[in-house]
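In this supplementary section we document a worked example of the pipeline. Step one takes a protein sequence of length 1113 as its only input; no multiple sequence alignment statistics are reported here. Step two produces a three-dimensional model, which step three serialises into structure tokens for compact storage. The input and output of this example are shown verbatim.
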Amino acid sequence: MDNWYEVRTTCDTNINVSAPISAIAFDPYQELLWTGNEKGRVTSHFGSGLHRYTSFRAHLNPVRQILVSDKGVISLCSDSVKMTNRRGLIKWTLSNEDTTDLHCMTYTTMPNSEILAAGKQHNMLVINVARGIVVKKVESESDIVVMRKSRLICCGANSGEVTLMDPRTFKVEHRVQAHTGTISDIDTIGNLLLTCGSSARHGNLIIDPLVKVYDIRTMRPLVPMPFPTGPCFLKMHPKLSTTVFIASRSGQFHVCDIGNTSDIHFYQVNTSSYVNAIDLSASGEMLAFGDAASFVHLWEDRKEAKINAYSNPIELPTIQTPPNITTSERSSLSLIGMPYYKEPLLSVWPSNMRFEVGNPPPKIDPDILNNMKMIDFVGYSPNPGNMKRNQVVRYSRKKHKDGTPKFRSEKERELQSGKTELDATSTKMPKYYKRVEIQYSRFGVDDFDFEFYNKSRYAGLETHIANSYCNSLLQVLFFTPVLRLITRSHIGTACTKENCLCCELGFLFRMLENARGRNCQASNFLRAFSTIPQALALGLFEPDEPDENTPYSMLIQNFNRFILEQLHQECNSNNNPRLLKSLPLEQTSHSMIQQLFGMQVASISKCQCETQTDRLTTSFVSHKGKERESKTKAFVDILRTSIQREIQQRAWCNNCQQYVPTIAKKIPKSLPPVLSINCGAGTSVPLEIWRTHDGQNAWLPERVSMDIDDDDILTVKELSSDAIVDINTSGSSKHANYELMAIISQVRVEKEIPHLVAFIKVPKSELESTSKSPWYLFNDFSVKNITEQEVFNFQGMPVVLYYSRVDISDLMDTSDLPSEIDKSILFKDISISKHHSTNKKSVDLLTPEELPQPGTLVAIDAEFVALSQEETEIRSDGTKSVIRPSRLSLARVSVLRGEGAKEGFPFIDDYIAASEPVVDYLTEYSGIKAGDLDPGSSKHTLVPLKIAYKKLRLLLDLGCVLVGHGLKKDFRIINILVPPEQVIDTVDIFHIKNRQRKISLRFLAWYLLNQNIQTDTHDSIEDAHTALLIYKKYLQFKSEGKFEKVLEDIYSEGHKHNWKPTHGMFPTSHIEGSSSSYPALPEMLETNTTEISSEIIENQNSETSETNFSQNK
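The serialised model returned by step three reads:
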């Protein structure tokens, strides 16, 4: 031990953070040395080179001790204990009324799991390292300033006494008065205990020049070791059990053998100050000193010394390749390095040389520029007549960006009123036509103010869902009343197709009906749409990253044709209802979609050899062709030639047995109740032709008349509003008067991604009384009432038109639609799992006698898995913005009876089969594990999403009232909208409106029911049952008239416990005069594989069962 030498000295060069070193510790798991200074900063150094690794401010007061575990670094100051990971990220902080003057800490019998902290205070604290909470308090008889642990916990007191405690019971086993003054340091290894301290002599404390040695087994003193300069620090060698390092504050230290005090080696630390802390590495090869001048001195006894014999690698920053320099609007200018320059930059222009200049002139009317004539450099033009003499357009001196509020948590600055009509002289697109985006704050999507964008009673559809470009057409289909009735009737049938778009459309329409102006999502419909192979083959899916060239007009037109064809196939059956009164009896095989949208068209192909082939087809969408004369032709003429046309083409002739020129004709045989028209993407009709001029519609008629005569010649005429009343089509399929009901337009702003909006004429039966016109603009979740003039002053290119017959209510009879709802799904045990056992069930299915009635109380809870991770963006100013949150999917749903003899028993506990790859099962929060959602390996009741959704939809339609905790987010992910009168959410019941804190179910169960739930993971049956019991408690408090007091007590207790239930402890007598003996979850429900027998159900009603519930709790 005579070869120790100093190898490295380092200090913090930043004078603002440097301070005397107050604590030092080697890391037993990695090659790191940790130091803490008197400013509360903790710093780590790597290896023998003492390379700076991490540094962070841990405390406001001096760091008194550092302990290093495998999970992180624990630092202690006078009033707090904090645990961080090795990068400095905080895991937990403990600071309360129990931490008044802490001095030291050590591990208990459970290393890395519990620590014991003590100081000059009445109680020693046993702290759980994983959770950062005090699990036990031990009364202290003296002020403890230093602790070490071997077989017993050795505590050195300020009075000079050393006490030895049992690390399990914390009872004092031995005491020894080592010094008459205070203890400076102690250390222990095996059965040896060493102490150093001071003694009181003549009223002063003098450092004892001896290191006292004790045998722990007999508590007898052994031969002390002399240290003339005054010992202040002791460190036993971890491998040589009798070797000890003794150091003084002046920097002198000895290495000596306890059994041979004559074998001493003397060393001196090169310090200009005094030593505050020392530590010896676990390998015994390194010794570190920290002094009051903020220097760290490292000593070694060999070359290539290591802190540990075997160390874990440290975590290093990820080496990233240099990013490609982008030049988008959001790119930071700092991405591009500054070039070398010799002259001053423009950015250093002095402030006193800046002058405000005038605004640029307003844009000149294009009509004036088109008619302008030039003489020399002066241009003149006739007055277009759209303004009075000497009148100019009002021009604001400052243009402000649209300051629409995005978050409810922000201060509302919305204007209560404002001009919504288009200014006759304005050529600028109104802001509500532009693409709308959902902005996410730290509170999530619930903080986004959707109400700012929609003040009507009609629901908008959210974006940020794959293929949400379909929103505009979905809204148009919703405002087609007959189709809405067809889909509602369809979801009441026993449809077995998993990804049935007609079912999903019906579910979506039910949401939109119940929304009452709230925003909805078409996520389930679009998920089913994305699973259809034909849609992929037709290229109907939106690109992952759309750009300004994305052809949304073609996408929506193709989707319009696809969705009607798909609905026709899914709604077609052997016994189709006869909705169209004019439909001949022999054509009752037509599907309901055919009867509503189908146009019978005869396709005739005639060869030069006079061979003719006839074929009768059904067309759901008419295509307005690309006419060269579009600028001069009327719309009705182009529409007629698009429906009834004759073309020459080369086709195969069976008679000639070759491709020959043929004449192909398309002749309409009947007219549909609803006429869908695709306006030919890329048509040569310019936007100016579509727009209204001088208050008159120049091109697109609002009403048209169509007639097929006896010679199958189609005539299309434009009708005025007065002519509709006089013409009677008498429900004929060959004579029809149509009225424009919807327009889908593609809005394109320069250098921005185009998007689709829908103009919809709301039927009179659904129109708001305050509406200024029946026309509404649907721009995803932005809904706005607009005038008819604004509709025809197109701000975007029309791509899809919908016309409806004016006599459609008389023409269509929906009374034959099936109205009976199939309720058998609630009584069946459905599962697609290959390992599902019908003998063992986790639920007691409903019987027909138990069919819910309006107002029936049921408890519900759901669990979810993540299908995609959160997408974030770091902006140029360093702020983090959530672009798209993680996409969650329903994984499990449980529904329990809320009343009656079987109260608390589940009748639905379905796991949802995963149709998409799961990136995170969120097992800690959901209880779902890999394999639970796989039909090939799951042992649970596994069903497709549609089956689970249909059960919930049926419960709502039956009038059930759902009880649960935090249901708003659950319903949003499930994609179901529940009327407020059918929801009882305990998170809202036990909440004080003027406080931000929402109380967790776990804390409410701990406080109100004396139950510990969610200890290991979440279980939806347990959570639903707990929410039901808490609601029953609420009813009890309400009837006793003390609910408000209880709620205040809950908030008070929550602040006291940091909203975390104390393990093993329950609040006693927290509610005066109330009983806390509510039953816990019955044993039969605690495991999902326990068989439910009729005997258990019958025993539920007996007195024995009530006793068992009480004992079970």
